[in-house]
Task: structure prediction
Amino acid sequence: MKILIVEDNPDLRENILTFLARENYTCETAADYEQGFDKIMSYTYDLVLIDIMLPHGNGLQLLQELKSVRPETGSIIISAKNSLDDKVKGLDIGADDYLTKPFQLPELLARIKAVHRRNRLDGSDILQVGEIEINTSTREVTVGEKLLDLTPKEYDLLLYFASNNNRVLSKQTIAEHLWGDYADHLENLDFVYQHIKNLRKKLADTDAKNYIKSVYSVGYKFTVSPNES
Result:
């Protein structure tokens, strides 16, 4: 999962970033309204954490901008203000949840997982795509009775593909999802091909179908027909 953290407090921002990175999430950060706006207009995220009180703008306005261009993106408002009006307004705009500071990082993680389940997995921890079963709670993947031994990046790649069934994903989009800001500094995207090659091989070793199709000069598409999903 790719997450954007929009928070002006540097200590809290780095604490959230470090904690979520340990949980194998790909995270990017923004320290003010303008940085947050540039990020949501330029990239796609599975979820955005937005502080209400931001330099150069308001987090609720940023949430409104996010929902105007990417309504499917999950969002959690975080704020030091325990104001009912702010909470109601944020939820009316489209926030999936609201968390008041101070909070414990494990609680934030639980909220993130809950939003992801509701938005992408219909409330379940299990994503079933064809023969492949992905347990997003344990990060285990099975094909039939066989457990796949995937690296963290291979797992993230498979989950990203499966969550975007039948959508063409460019190499750049895949790189940005898996590596965040770091992808902008890479000389080429050959490593994307290598990760996909390794994932394909591990799936083939379980006799799974070839769900990952190459789209010439564009990227890749994960395809599961309706009667398989």
